Amino acid sequence: MNDCVKLYALSTCGHCKHAKQLLDSCGVPYECVTVDKLIGEARRLAFEEMKKENPQCAFPMLVIGNRVIIGFQAEEIREAVGLR
Fold first, then answer.
1. Which of 29, 36, 68, 69 has the highest local Cβ count within 10 Å?
2. Domain range holding 45?
3. Residue 84 belongs to a domain
4. How many domains does the chain have?
């Protein structure tokens, strides 16, 4: 799997924590944007990016290549990163 994995998360979200744990346990490198830890323009830009594919800004949101997964969907995430 050569696609970049980007995870939009909240520091207080249990589902976000599970998504991180899944990616870590599978050895998948990813960029995590912890949206509630951002301030000012950085936070605004993160929400703008999320709203393009996820108008409700639900967490977690994973972008894996050109695929977007909203919520902690373990099987979908595994499939998207090529671990079935």
1. 69
2. 5-79
3. no
4. 1
Indicate whether this model's pTM tops 0.90: yes
Q: Which residues contact 22 (CB under 8 A, 6 or more apart)?
A: 72, 74, 77, 78
Summarize pLDDT for 48-67 with one digit per residue, the tens. 999 999 999 999 999 998 89
**SS3 for 5?**
strand
Phi, psi of 32 (to 5 degrees): -110, 125
In a domain, 34, yes or no: yes
User: Residue 54 maps to which CATH number?
Assistant: 3.40.30.10
> pLDDT (tens digit, 9 = 90+) per residue, 25-42?
989 999 999 999 999 999
Residues in CB range of 6: below 8 A, 6 or more apart: 30, 31, 32, 33, 62, 63, 64
